[in-house]
Design brief:
Helix content is 47%, strand content 17%. It is of the alpha/beta class. The strands form 3 sheets. The protein has an 8-stranded parallel β-barrel with strand order 1-2-3-4-5-8-12-13, surrounded by 10 helices. Strands 7-6-9 form a 3-stranded mixed β-sheet, with no helix packed on it.
Amino acid sequence: MPLVTSTEMFKKAYDGGYAIGAFNVNNMEIVQGITEACQEQKAPVILQVSKGARAYANHTYLIKMVEAAVIECPDIPIVLHLDHGPDFETCKACIDGGFTSVMIDCSSRPFDENVAETKKVVEYAHAHGVVVEAELGTLAGVEDDVQVSAEDSSYTHPEEVEEFVTRTGCDSLAIAIGTSHGAYKFTPEQCTRNEQGILVPPPLRFDVLEEVSKRLPGFPIVLHGSSSVPRQFVDKINAHGGKMPDAIGIPEDELRHAAQLSVCKINIDSDIRLAITATIREYFDEHPDHFDPRQYLKPARQAVKDMVTHKLVNVLGCNGKA
């Protein structure tokens, strides 16, 4: 099947109490690992591209790799989505270039400016058969060009969501309930430590999510910054020369609960990076004489596939939903 929009995906996810995985892609191995897992698990998927990915890999290469995935994985619906589009011009370029979904992120601007820019993108996108994700509330953390300090982050105000969605016409809404970009989502001071000395992050604000859901019944909600930063990846990186003390993510049971509510799209990026980096660091240690990139990128690709399979089945619940 050709690339699709997320409209039908989100309706089924909302009604079915699961979420679609939105995985960031930067190169061939990542695209392959994600889509092979989804093909095997019969799971719908959103492949998303950030501004940084477009700068790194080139828009045309990314489009062609995703088109190849569509050919190789004909049994699953695939959305090509722009993640954190900073302005109308970037969104327009992606709409004109074959994306089926775009995000316009003006969450750091005043409310009325966010509305105006989002509405402009929505009007252009809808005229071209493309759907739009917008954002209210600001997530802390670092992801490519998105950098927000903890002091500047803010939870979504539920009383604003109805006006925002009505005035903009957006198709889905990313909200801030305590998730954060990157592998260091919380400072040690924000956390407690369990018996093993491992940091435990503060719980997500499900009260905010539930209030937003009451005000927008049936409307798809998105969570950004939702990597879990698995200990096995962090420990493997540190055991093989890395330095990632106190890297911490969102507990998977909280993400599963969010997926059972109104969250229809959960973004995962850092876990992919960690899986690849942990695998390659271990490979270099074990095979110091190897120099062929295919030798270490093959197990790295498998690590992405295994991690995504786990997310589809145990966190998102979207396996078998293609």
